[in-house]
Write a structure and sequence with these properties.
This protein is α+β, with helices and mostly antiparallel strands. It has one domain: Immunoglobulin-like. Helices cover about 15% and strands about 50% of the residues. It contains one helix and eight strands, in the order αββββββββ. It has one helix at about 1-25, and strands spanning about 50-55, 60-65, 70-80, 85-95, 95-110, 110-120, 125-130, 135-140. The strands form two sheets. It has a four-stranded antiparallel β-sheet, with no helix packed on it. A four-stranded antiparallel β-sheet has the order 5-4-7-8, with no helix packed on it. It is globular, with a radius of gyration of 19 Å.
Length: about 140
């Protein structure tokens, strides 16, 4: 009986290691293979193109955009179904210089942001939150 439990523990640990290694092997942009819950609303302005997005549960989507002319990143969090105001956040910061950041949060009906930071030659991390659901992503370098 003791050997059966040991074998079960070893099997469970091996399975956990494989799942963990697979999770860390996925590229940061893997989320873009899923359809967006909410469409990008153009809030970042002219010249910005979506470079990545991540769904915030089923409540909406946080978008990371880039303007090649200005060298700026912008983040905006968009709700799937606008309605009564709920806590929302859009945040973006330089991964290696966290003091270079921009954030917008509050009780919103439709979207939070846009927030802009300089990004040329820098990697960025971005965050989106709607109510109690949030997502953080990183990996884009300008």
């Amino acid at each position: 009986m003791k050997r059966m439990r040991q074998a079960a523990v070893v099997t469970a640990l091996a399975a956990t290691a494989v799942v963990g290694a697979t999770a860390f092997a996925l590229p940061a942009s893997a989320a873009t293979t899923e359809p967006a819950n909410a469409a990008y609303n153009g809030a970042c302005g002219t010249g910005y193109s979506v470079v990545d997005f991540n769904n915030v549960g089923t409540l909406g989507t946080v978008y990371l955009t880039w303007n090649d002319r200005t060298g700026e990143n912008c983040a905006v969090t968009v709700r799937t179904k606008p309605g009564a105001a709920v806590y929302m956040q859009a945040k973006v910061f330089q991964t290696n210089h966290t003091q270079v950041s921009a954030s917008d949060s509050g009780a919103y009906t439709t979207y939070a942001g846009p927030v802009h930071i300089p990004g040329r030659g820098e990697c960025v991390t971005w965050r989106g939150q709607i109510a109690d659901q949030y997502v953080v992503d990183a990996g884009h370098c300008g």
